[in-house]
Design a protein that fits this description.
The complex is a heterodimer of chains A (356) and B (336).
Chain A lengths: L1 H8 L3 H9 L4 H11 L1 H4 L2 H28 L6 H15 L13 H23 L5 H20 L17 E2 L2 E2 L3 H24 L1 H11 L1 H6 L4 H27 L9 H14 L5 H23 L7 H15 L3 H26 L1
Antiparallel strand pairs in A: 1-2
Chain B lengths: L1 H6 L1 H19 L4 H7 L2 H32 L6 H19 L2 H22 L8 H23 L15 E10 L5 E7 H23 L1 H11 L1 H6 L4 H26 L6 H16 L4 H21 L4 H15 L9
Antiparallel strand pairs in B: 1-2
Helix pairs in contact in B: 4-8, 4-11, 4-12, 4-13, 5-6, 5-7, 5-11, 5-12, 6-11, 8-9, 12-13, 13-14
Classes of the chains: A mainly alpha (356), B mainly alpha (336).
Chain lengths: 356, 336
């Protein structure tokens, strides 16, 4: 419980509200500006392999953050929903597997995939809300691994363990939207939208009711809220976000296979969200950046210090353990605590008198 | 049982009909029409036996899982790693000493020791924080999986079956009657039957210990209310350590069984973790008879599914889980 409980005790609400009125901290604007002009600075590898992948994984982890942070439901099936959306796009769109793909145009296949994935996520969510807390993890993990084994076994729809390859990505208005720079802006726009939607929803009546249901479901039920309906709606919204991430992922790689929805990958999403922090929407993106940087450079780093380069997952696992042990609210929590500890020492002597 | 029949006469009747149909399918000589429709009886009987024996293996893995969950509310997602680790230990010991029985003992003891270390160093420090404990077990399972991949590589290992268990055994189950009037009986690998018998013995022993001894009484009381039990002066932490060690040891032993039945390779840990999860969700969290029933259902569903609807076999398992969650969210045989 502690991962989601930790934040309840010291709610960050007053701080965020004050910040929001001042149009956010300057650091956020600098980061946003940097992200916008990034294609001028970074080349293709950094643009897509590092930042594009970070944003995509961040979107999927953001959906988990929404469920875990505001709903208190730790769902391990967010990657499965993303993968489902990806598979649906591959099946309805065009790909190298002509006997499976239906060759719909992308503007029809994408909404279809999003709608089906949202439906799938909402149905599985309706299943998961029949139980609570710790059981949610078990059921969503079972859903995720069942889907993984199903895609492996099934050849008629999912083409078995080879998966679906050379998926056709959108190409319109004379722009190849899979080319590095346009694709980066597509990812950035979707990520910004998802970020804004989650931030907005958290403060909307729905989000507040959801957080109420997280903190005390019985009281919320007594107040006349339909707790389960709120939770299923949260699953539906999170599934939509995850499905957006899944479609971007399929456009990125141009292929999808059971390996993309494997259980390890699903757990990676949990690691990203927890390492970044599930108390703020920005957490998953920070976690994703750390994860992608580690995944990309761990090999070189490990070899450089004279270790076996293949032990990337060991580092990820140990890092995750350290975070869970010492900072249950992730890197975001570490940073907040550090700021709170250092802030009084810095500001009180100089500017403390005037404003209080 | 009688209460169940009184309360749900219709369901009891349906259940009875299903059991009767199953028994008829197993014991009767199939009429020609049935064989034409769904294939030979031998295939069916083999699938049933594979399912039941696989259920025995699932029971060994899942009973430790459910015991740990029932007492400590700790969803040990590293349980699959303990299974695989036990399998590798058993493989190493059986290659080194050549003794199959010794490999079981060694796997049980070593994995139980790992369980003790985990409980003392990790879980006892975050008692009562279910979600954090679960996160830790996820982290541990990643670390264990990578360490084992490092040590044993990605190869397939199989534990050598001892000579006295190699070969088939004739069972008194008719598979067909030849035109000459001669009856053909089912022959089935001896080792799987012996292992199944072993898991039944372990299951019955666990039930007896839980229901007839003092330590079992303490564990059952702990499942119901551990705070009150601790207040009564029982050294609950010691009980926690013992139960965790036993559950982990069972998983390790199951690893040797799995290594003999099938094979050991990276990825098996996830497979058996999933199996335990589904078994426990279906049977009821924290209930040993529930784990037995769930293991039997899931084992049968998996094997029959893979014979009759190969590309949708996993869906059968999943549908069973969904159905149970829809009708009885707490599991079929859950106490509460």
């Amino acid at each position: 419980m502690s991962i989601t409980q930790g934040q309840r005790l010291r709610s960050p609400a007053p701080a965020t509200r004050a910040v929001a009125q001042n149009y956010g901290p300057p650091a956020a604007w600098i980061v946003a500006a940097l992200l916008l002009i990034l294609p001028l600075i970074a080349n293709g590898f950094f643009l897509i392999e590092i930042f594009g992948t970070t944003l995509i994984l961040g979107i999927i982890a953001l959906s988990l953050m929404f469920l875990a942070g505001y709903g208190g439901m730790v769902s391990l099936m967010q990657l499965t929903i993303a993968g489902f959306a990806g598979y649906m796009f591959a099946i309805f769109g065009s790909s190298g597997s002509a006997n499976i793909s239906l060759n719909w145009p992308w503007w029809l296949a994408t909404p279809m995939a999003l709608a089906l994935a949202t439906l799938f996520g909402a149905l599985c969510g309706a299943l998961a809300v029949r139980t609570e807390g710790i059981y949610t993890i078990m059921i969503t993990l079972a859903v995720g691994s069942a889907f993984y084994y199903f895609t492996n076994q099934n050849w008629a729809l999912f083409n078995g363990h080879t998966g679906i390859n050379t998926i056709v990505t959108p190409h319109f208005w004379g722009v190849d939207w899979r080319a590095d720079t346009p694709f980066y802006y597509v990812i950035l726009a979707v990520a910004a939208l998802c970020f804004a939607a989650v931030s907005y929803l958290a403060r909307s009546p729905f989000g507040l009711a959801l957080q109420g249901a997280r903190d005390n479901p019985r009281r919320m039920a007594a107040l006349g809220f339909n707790v389960n309906a709120h939770r299923v709606a949260a699953y539906a919204f999170a599934s939509f976000v995850a499905a957006l991430g899944g479609i971007l992922q399929v456009w990125n790689y141009g292929q999808i296979s059971p390996g993309s929805v494997a259980v390890d990958r699903a757990i990676d999403i949990l690691i990203i969200a927890v390492v970044g922090g599930v108390t703020r929407p920005v957490g998953p993106f920070i976690g994703a950046l750390i994860f992608v940087l580690l995944r990309t450079f761990a090999l070189d780093f490990l070899v450089a210090i004279g270790l076996d380069g293949n032990r990337f997952r060991l580092i990820i696992g140990l890092g995750f353990l350290v975070i869970v042990f010492f900072s249950p609210d992730g890197v975001v929590g570490l940073w907040e605590r550090w700021r709170r500890r250092s802030a009084p020492a810095l500001t009180r002597p100089s500017g403390g008198g005037g404003h209080g | 049982m009688t209460k169940f029949i009184e309360r749900n006469p219709l369901w009891a009747l349906v259940l009875l009909a299903v059991i009767a149909l199953g028994l008829w399918l197993i014991f009767a000589v199939w009429p020609q029409g049935l064989e034409d429709a769904i294939g030979k009886k031998k295939v069916f009987l083999n699938a049933v036996f594979n399912g039941v024996t696989l259920g025995g293996l699932y029971f060994l893995v899942a009973s430790g899982f459910t015991l740990i969950f029932g007492l400590m509310r700790n969803v040990n997602l590293a349980h699959g790693s303990l299974y695989l680790f036990g399998g590798y230990i058993g493989y190493g010991i059986s290659v080194w000493t050549g003794s199959w029985v010794l490999s079981f003992v060694a796997a049980f003891v070593i994995v139980a020791l790992v369980g003790i270390v985990m409980q003392i160093l990790v879980f006892s420090r975050m008692e009562g924080q279910d979600l954090r404990q679960t996160m830790v077990t996820i982290g541990l399972s990643i670390v264990f999986a990578d360490l084992m991949l490092w040590a044993f590589g990605g190869d397939f290992y199989q534990v050598q079956t001892p000579d006295w268990l190699v070969g088939p055994v004739q069972l008194p189950f008719l598979t067909a009657v030849k035109s000459s009037g001669e009856s053909v009986y089912l022959s089935y690998p001896k080792v799987r039957l012996v292992i199944f018998a072993g898991s039944v013995v372990i299951g019955v022993a666990m039930w007896l210990v839980l229901n007839r001894t003092r330590i079992g009484m303490i564990v059952r009381a702990g499942v119901d209310d551990r705070e009150i039990l601790a207040a009564m002066g029982v050294r609950i932490r010691l009980v926690f350590v013992l139960v965790f060690a036993f559950g982990a040891g069972l998983a390790g032993m199951a690893g040797v069984v799995g290594g003999t039945f099938q094979s050991l390779s990276p990825g098996e840990d996830t497979r058996f973790l999933l199996a335990s999860l589904v078994v426990v969700i279906v049977g009821g969290m924290g209930s040993i008879p529930g784990a037995a029933l769930g293991a039997l259902i899931i084992g049968l569903a998996e094997q029959l599914g893979s014979v009759y609807i190969p590309t949708y076999a996993i869906v059968v398992t999943f549908v069973i889980m969904v159905a149970v969650l829809a009708v009885r969210p707490q599991g079929l045989l859950a106490g509460r």
